[in-house]
Amino acid sequence: MAKLIYRVVSACGALGYGFPQESLQKALLGRIDAVISDAGSMDAGPYYLGSGGQYFERDAVKNDFRKMVEAGELIEGPVILGSCGMAGGDRNLDWMLEVAREVFEELDVRDTKVAVIRSELDPAIVIDELRAGALRPVGAGPALDEAALRESTIVGQMGIHPLLAALDSGAKYVFAGRSCDVALFAADMIRRGIAPGLAYHVGHVLECGALACDPGSPSDCLVAEIYDDGSAVFVAPDENRRCTPYSIAAHSLYEEAHPQLQFYPEGVLAMARTEFFAVDTHTAGIRKSRFYRTGKPWPLSIKLEGARRVGLRKVSLIQLDPADLHAIPDDILVYGRNGVQERHLASSERELGIIVRTRARTAAAADKLASLLTHYLIHYGYPGRESTAGNIAYPLSPNLVSFRYADGAYGAIVPSGTRDPIFLAKYVSIRQGVVDLVRREFPEALSEAEYAFVEADAERPVALLRTVDRDADTLARRHHAEIERIASVASVGAGSLLDIDANDAYEWTLYHLLQNEEVIRNRLFPIHYYHANGREWSEAGVAQADYFDVGEPAGTQNLDDRTLSVIEDVPPPGTPSGSQRLLDMARVIRSKDAGINRLTFDVLFVSKDAYEAALRSNFFCARNVADELGYELASVVGAYFVDNCNAIKITVERSIISASLGERDVFGAQQQSMLERMVVPMYSDAPRSAG
Fold it and tell me: Which fold has domain 578-682?
């Protein structure tokens, strides 16, 4: 019988999402070697890196971290956080460290070693690399500009080596700046001799918490058990969640541009030969994943992200009479028409704008309640959910806008929208469920502020205006002109909110690979050690990581994301015998950003037969996908078959960089309606169009 050699708990998908204390307590009934959580991402846009601001409410982050520390004090292993403060820049990290000091003081954590790994890079170093022509783009990214880089906050996304160094030093608590989320989990496993292929794949499954379960949620814990036979088994502490071969295989696609290849600073995780297996009705596992090192850019390459302020921003929300909708210019975002996608609604579709709106005696109370309601809303799990990457689309980064009412009260709004027919059918119960969650977890937030969900659709359309300029006077004139542009052709409803000063606008300026090994080895990711006694942390030294090769040589392995598992263009013979709605053929249809410049769609079919029928139709080759989704063929990175979970993945270059000024869906989580409308022709005898 295989022997358990390592057991790790992922607290949640991101620190601040929240997770049940009961789940963590159940996980602690068995051996636990580490407690780990990703704490951030670039998904929410450039604002958080450029400004140093926070995405999650401080109380929510503190509440989650407190639970992790309570667990950490009961085990011998480490507690690890990465991408601290959302974006992982120095200001984000310092904010998280202050939260940690408070928690240490309150829980009387004493005589413990802390490692803090910083990830910011001096723009001057990056400009030197630009001048040398040494920065490698990661897909179609921001155009490089020296002046923009000079104004930017820049971070490198660390791999396993700085984390390994911190753990080898004996650090109990590790706080990392911008990090590969998978590396947070893989580092300690590799340190303990676990094969890199298994370690990286386990990390990918764990980094979103219980999202890899059925039903999935990032607001819950997930446990991985590693055995000496080279397998890993996933266990959900909440008995209402199941880990199945299907749910684990399906999650292995999540947020990635390719279904079987994932690229990290140290090399490439390859899952083409991975086996997904069931242990029982609630637990499932993986084995035979491989990790390869190849020629440049791997190893050793570090992805750089840069963001800068582009100006002040004003927004207005204008309630419209549906009779006036035809007169509103096409380029204006209107919930009920083109709020979620630039493409106008088809006659068979419905679009719902959901504007969370709060009112309180203090700005903090208004912001807190709006933020909590919004974060629960986007990831709320409900029966029959197919769009598992997120329930709503945000047009703004940051998504929350604070303001004052005419009577002096403080308010906050968060505009969002959806076209998901299943979400729309269950919206009333989802809305109540979100409120109940806040009432249970943060009752004081509801007692200190009032809330409303303002709904907009074709019968109650709402226009969102956004104007950005570096000069305040010019901004005011331009935004007023935008308001007049609508007021000249339509009535402005009584509930409209006009001329609100929103947070400053930021843009991505850098999304490229750094390949200068001298900079990576000697200047990036300094590790600062501290001796912690409650709030008092005394400095105990600074170090750099030692780097070594990870994984096995690639040899002749196909690691080309443009050719591996691509659906071939094989027109089926004869005529179709019928057709089927894709909605009826799939159990999951989701979209999600894969970085700031790519959008990926996953279609997970209800059965092997449905999957094979979809492939036989040739409907999902790149040429047809481009036509159906309205993209140029050159923008389709790939359309891929995924036999191990009966899925098709489609990856395209984003039409605009995430969170640009014309954004409608920062996370890319509500673009799947283009697929939901598809009707697939059925061919009974055609070969499947997969290479």
Answer: Alpha-Beta Plaits (3.30.70)
